[in-house]
Amino acid sequence: MKKFLALIILSLILGSSVASSNDTIKKDGFVIPTNKWKDKIKIDENFEVNNPKDKIIIIYNHGESGRDVKLKDCFWKSELRNWAQLAGDKINGKEIMVYIHCQGQLEGDLGAKLGKLGMWTKNWEGPYPGISRDDRRVEGNLEVVKKFVKLGVPKKQIFMSGHSCGGWVTLLLTAKYMSEVGGGISLMPACFWNLSKKFKVKKVGYEKAMEELHKKKPGWAMWRQDQIDIIKDGNAPILIFTHPMDPFEGLTSDWMDNVPNFKRIVVSEDKKINGKKCKLAGSNWEEPLKNAHSIDWADCFIHYHPLIKEYITSRL
What we know:
With 316 residues, the protein is α/β, with parallel strands linked by helices.
């Protein structure tokens, strides 16, 4: 009975992120450029870069449907549509190439010990025991960066990026290894539960919500704060997108405003961008956005492509 209840809890926690297996991608490769948002997403698995000095590489990292444990899936096709339109654009004569990096096979030491359900249902006091999945994701991305450099791509033309936990990994990598990349673009960074919603930040305020988090999940709270301290100390000049309606870190992201080199963009106050209603790719290609955590997957987010290219230009 307990196991059954745990499964229900897990499904509720992860429900907003789970997609059908037909909509997932489990491989590394370049997103093939397209000019239409409704076009099919295709991935080129060949690790080839012609004229590397004339390329800008964006390494894009996926979110996670489980914490610190091995995952079956990596990317959802829906999240790559905006990148498919950005790929192929040129900045100062250099072509943008978007490379997706699947790390579903990685696992952290705590996740291996507690298991997928245990991460959500069991409490631990902290600190984190050993090497986390986040750490392994950072190191894995650094290896990919080195491969691109070996191909001849200048470091300043390689950019880290990612959504959700992939966005959080982007914050960690740039904090530790900013000298190895040109910059970072973090989208809805979050890797520690649906904090804003679960701890009612809008109602009780940030301080009381964090007090409750430390009380109920001391290990999680310590782990999160340790990583935030690393990110703050790194003070990397990166571009970050957040949304106050994001149920994960939406209302717990204001600490970013105190990091001098961060450029944080609060996307909007509702599910519109620049007055346009946000729609996601679905069975009819016009599904309304329900979860602000995925607003960077929606068609309205294309509004920010010029800003992303402006940021990249500033780092070249």
